[in-house]
Amino acid sequence: MSSYSSSNGRFRSRLSRKKWGAPVVAGGALGLILLVTVVSKVFWGGGDTDLDLPPPRKTGTQHDLPDPSQPHYPGAGSSTTLSAVDELFERQSQTLEQAAARYRLKTDRNPPRGYDKWFEYAREKRCLVDDYDQIYRDFAPFYQLADKRESEKNAEKFFPQMVKAVGALIHEENIGMRTFTMQEHRLGTADEWTSNYDELWNTTLTQLGPSLPDFKLIINHRDEPRIAFDVRALSPEVAFKPEDKAPFRNAPKPTSKFYTDDGHCLVPNDPRGFLTWANGASSFLLYSASADFTTDLYPVLSQSKIYPCFSDILFPSPFHYKRSSSHPKYSKPDNVGWAKKRSVLYWRGQSTGGWIYGENYRSFPRFRLIDIAREPKNAGLMDVAITAFYTWFCQLEGCDGEKISKEYNITGENAPREEVYNYKYVLDVDGNAFSGRYLGLLASGSLVFKSTLFTEYFHDWLQPFEHYIPVRPDLSDLAERVRWAKAHDEEARRIQKAGKEFVDRVMTDAQNDCYFYLVLLEWARLHAGGH
User: Fold this and answer.
1) Where do transmembrane segments lie in this chain (predicted)?
2) Domain map of the chain by residue range?
């Protein structure tokens, strides 16, 4: 019997007519009309108030925090045109009362304790204040469980108990996770393991420490998500009864049966029209490079996940920090003008993705990319190559690395990272999990074509056809998208410029810190038994 077979039957028996309630999420552009109402009475009267609001402070205009690097918001009658990023900053809450009101409207609960300090921090660092719906969605299942105090004994203790349980597992065995503690504003660790990202996490948590309450924090330092628990399909009551006999050790080989045949994760290839599934085009779903997941709802921070099959809590990856050693770095700036760039799609990368068994690699997106580029009808459309064969994933029966390398002309020669500057179009495609190159490519001066199954924390902010060109997981529409860009150069250029502006001005290290900070406040409230 496979290590996950006991979970499969449980998955079916867990199905219930009563599903998880959806959090109240309002649209981003709410306007300021509702926010100038009697906020303190309507939004803060009664209930479990976590935040002591100061008296409303007087604010002049949105110029309270002037800075030459930030957008200038024109007054009435001005002929200045706002960019999309200008408008994004302009619509952010200007006062704590406004921010708290929007938070309450979206979540139907008060902001967590410490939100007032977070608001001042966000304003000082020039971060977004209101657009954190991804955080609200990620924590919504845990708040729903904590609120079931009448029907479930000690419901508010579910979160800290599950944190304690996974912390005990980490203490016993290296399962690709770290346990951090915050005690009286001092950072500590509760395990003896290490990760490649410890320096960044230690620095960031230490810097935020003076404003953080006490908590124990679980961080998954692998690229892959770990919480294979679909809150859409299962009832809340199921979460209170963990049944996974080997949490974070489930590693079916291959993973395709678990995700597809047993219904744990079916991902559409295209949401329009009749559904076809992308499971057969994802190396992660076919034969994950690193599975080791759990089918119970544990609180864990991860860098990416597949929605809605996974319930990991997202936070900024070290790949997203410019101050991180993991951030993709370019040794020189882009000095190739758009008109001088080649109208060709460019990609270089290793053969990462998953374990190769027989010829399953032909369905992996990076190998499919080479096959698509070689089709006669696509001649001259793409300049793509696998630069190195990852031999670690070629240990199973039927994997002939030499044959694969010859077939796909994998020579082992690395291409200079700055080579991307010579091309108008670049592709970002999944590897073992999410791609850490995405934000760097958006900032490169080229138009990004993005193919992924994974959600990262900024998913709501970067919009298809506004900041990048989306491509199906199986890449079946890639050539068509490139031809569109070639035929509509002005529009392609507009999308490229919008993506670059957004990354340059919004996706800063400070914004990563603001996001992480708010995640920690939500985590701390639940860890303390809040609801």
Assistant:
1) 20-44
2) 5-20+148-323+511-527, 34-132, 338-507
- Under DSSP, is residue 302 helix (H, G, I), strand (E, B) or coil? strand
Residue ranges in the chain whose pLDDT is less than 70: 1-81, 150-151, 262-263, 331, 531
* CA-wise closest residue to 285 among 207, 363, 223: 363
Is residue 487 within 8 Å of residue 103, measured between CB atoms? no
Q: Which residues does 148 contact at the CB level (< 8 Å), separation at least 6?
A: 155, 236
The one-character DSSP state at 91 is T
Which H helix or E strand runs over 241? Answer: none
Please tell me whether the peptide bond between 308 and the residue prior to it is cis, using omega within 30 degrees of 0. yes
Averaged confidence pLDDT in the chain: 85
Residue 486 has what pLDDT? 98
The DSSP bridge pattern shows strands 215-220 and 313-314 to be: unpaired
Cα–Cα nearest to 252, from 4, 440, 65: 4
Rounded (10°) CA dihedral 66, 68, 74, 75 = 30
Give the span between the Cα atoms of 334 and 353, in whole angstroms. 29
Please state which CATH number belongs to domain 338-507.
3.40.50.2000
CA–CA distance, 336 with 188 (Å, rounded to integer):
47
Residue 147: count of CB within 10 angstroms of its CB: 16
pTM of this structure? 0.85
pLDDT, residue 73, reads 29
| Distance separating the N- and C-terminal Cα atoms of the chain | 40
pLDDT at 331: 66
Structure tokens at 387: 């630069």
pLDDT of residue 332: 73
Residue 193 DSSP symbol:
-
Contact partners, residue 7, CB within 8 Å, separation at least 6: 243, 244, 250, 295
Name the 3-class secondary structure at 216.
strand
